[in-house]
Design goal:
heterodimer; A: 132 residues; mainly alpha; two-stranded antiparallel ribbon; 2 strands; elongated; B: 376 residues; mainly beta; Neuraminidase; four-stranded antiparallel beta sheet; 2 helices; 24 strands; 37% strand
């Protein structure tokens, strides 16, 4: 019986995984477009940022370890000191006025590009993040 | 590795630029000014004060990019925003942007406001200008006198600066709205252009393209990317602008009638990805900038210095740097930049720089508010 359940679960995972991946790939594709519209001017094409001015996203501990704060920053803007990979940044990202689905797409793009790995961000998750 | 390839290609690019440089050259390390300044806060209760003007009584009107207008009297902000603004389409770099007073403001009371407008029932928006009169913290007699095409949901490149010249023409900058291959080189839309209109929005009969079928008649110059700075030269009366390049290639331009400033056919910038936009930086029939920056400083806001309080900065134009949090001073000899300096280093992401009626320079700064720049 346990064996049967295990087989079932494994099968389910195999079935679900590609759907989840496809969803992520599609979201990242849309997110890349949004990124190139709204974010690239400061965070640059490879998410490398501008030293001393704008923090990197590629390999950025802040982004990868502060999921909700990162969603909040993209959704509402960000101000004040943050430390990214040991370096201090004290600037401002003014609100971009993206829709929740656009925030989710761009989060999926930056969380899964340039060597980053992150869990799928849904529109619902973005909707649940409130302004501080 | 990628980093070093970037450095090598940047070096090569810089070498090429130096080799081919005619009127301009690039320099990353600009010296700091030896004129120290104190940044005196005027009012710090602003989140993104995109622009401001001084009214005849020396009070200030200040735009918040998110769509509110405030009156600041002797440093005190009226907590009630000015009523009667149009509905503002806030998206990416667009929102409530610039303010300008009619040259005869004291007689006619016309205030000019540039903002993102999304026409009802349509998706996306573009830069528009409303004029209105202010009384009791309310706008009245509102008229939309300029509305750029095409509408776009893209977040970038709205331009949005305005300036009157001595003859009473109103100039308006509109960015390329993120469609560089469609807009700036086409005369059949408003984007990527400097426009010239009368104070009531009508088109001057002698505008350069009024005789051309299919051309937008308010166009005064074209081939622009994203001009977020505009000021009239105090001696020549000419309109000068600067614009954001992509990665490198920010430009200072002297605006001349009917002239093509080349974007994106010629540019000193490259794509954010590091790939080329074009092989050429010069072309016949396309104007060279007065000066260009590689790398970009992200220029925003602009004023020529005329005040006696800054004697060593006469014949200079001041330009805010969004990227490096300072004001860039270009000292001019005629139409050439002969010296560069970093002024107000560390002040922040400057949106607008203006001289006040008291002769002091004022700046609005993202996330910080309004500041008076007092020489030490």
């Amino acid at each position: 019986m346990i064996k049967l359940i295990m087989t079932f679960l494994v099968g389910l995972c195999i079935m679900v995984q590609p759907i989840q991946d496809e969803k992520l790939v599609e979201s990242m594709k849309r997110g890349k477009e949004t990124y190139e519209d709204f974010c690239i001017t400061c965070h640059m094409a490879e998410g490398e940022g501008v030293p001393g001015a704008f923090p990197p996203l590629a390999g950025a501990d802040y982004l990868l370890e502060n999921r909700t704060a990162s969603i909040r920053a993209v959704k509402y803007g960000q101000q004040g000191e943050i430390v990214v990979n040991g370096k201090k940044y004290n600037s401002i990202m003014t609100p971009l006025y993206l829709e929740d689905n656009e925030v989710a797409d761009v989060m999926n793009y930056i969380l899964n590009s340039w060597g980053n790995e992150g869990k799928y961000v849904s529109e619902e998750e973005v909707a649940s993040v409130e302004k501080e | 590795m990628i980093q070093s390839i970037h450095s090598v290609s940047l070096c090569l690019l810089l070498l090429t630029l130096f080799a081919s440089s005619s009127c301009s050259q690039s320099n990353v390390n600009f010296p700091k000014s030896d004129q120290p300044l104190t940044f005196e806060p005027v009012n710090e209760d602003f989140s993104n004060p995109w622009s401001f003007v001084f009214l005849p009584d020396a009070s200030m009107l200040v735009t918040e990019k998110e769509g509110e207008l405030f009156h600041v009297v002797e440093g005190v902000k009226n907590p009630e925003p000015v009523q009667g603004l149009p509905e503002v389409y806030v998206r990416g770099q667009g929102g409530l942007m610039d303010l300008e007073l009619h040259p005869d403001y004291e007689e006619n009371g016309w205030l000019y406001i540039s903002y993102g407008l999304s026409p009802e029932g349509e998706s996306g928006g573009n830069t528009a200008v409303m004029r209105a009169k202010l009384a009791d913290n309310k706008l009245m007699d509102q008229e939309v006198i300029f509305q750029a095409t095409p509408n776009s949901t893209k977040g970038q490149h709205w331009g949005g600066r305005m300036e009157f010249d001595r003859d009473g023409y109103l100039y308006i900058s509109v960015g390329d709205r993120g469609a560089r291959d469609d807009n700036p080189q086409s005369l059949s839309n408003h984007s990527g252009k400097i426009h010239r209109i009368h104070d009531d929005g009508s088109i001057p009969a002698d505008n350069p393209f009024t005789g051309e079928d299919g051309a937008i008649h308010s166009i005064y110059s074209y081939g622009h990317r994203n001009p977020q700075g505009m000021a009239m030269h105090p001696e020549t009366g000419e309109i000068w602008t600067h614009e954001h390049g992509p990665r490198g290639g920010d430009e200072l331009n002297r605006i001349q009638e009917g002239v093509n400033y080349g974007w994106p056919v010629i540019t000193y910038g490259i794509n954010y990805s590091g790939t080329k936009i074009t092989d050429i930086t010069e072309k016949e029939g396309m104007e060279q900038p007065v000066y260009y920056w590689v790398p970009s400083i992200a220029p925003c806001g602009m004023t020529f210095v005329t005040s006696d309080l800054y004697p060593q900065w006469q014949t200079s134009v001041l330009i805010g740097s969004l990227k490096f949090n300072y004001i860039h001073r270009c000292e001019l000899e005629g139409n050439k930049v002969v010296k560069h300096e970093k002024v107000a280093d560390g002040l922040g992401r400057i949106r607008t720089v203006r001289e006040g009626p008291d002769g002091y320079l004022y700046a609005s700064v993202e996330g910080k508010g309004l500041f008076k720049l007092v020489p030490k």
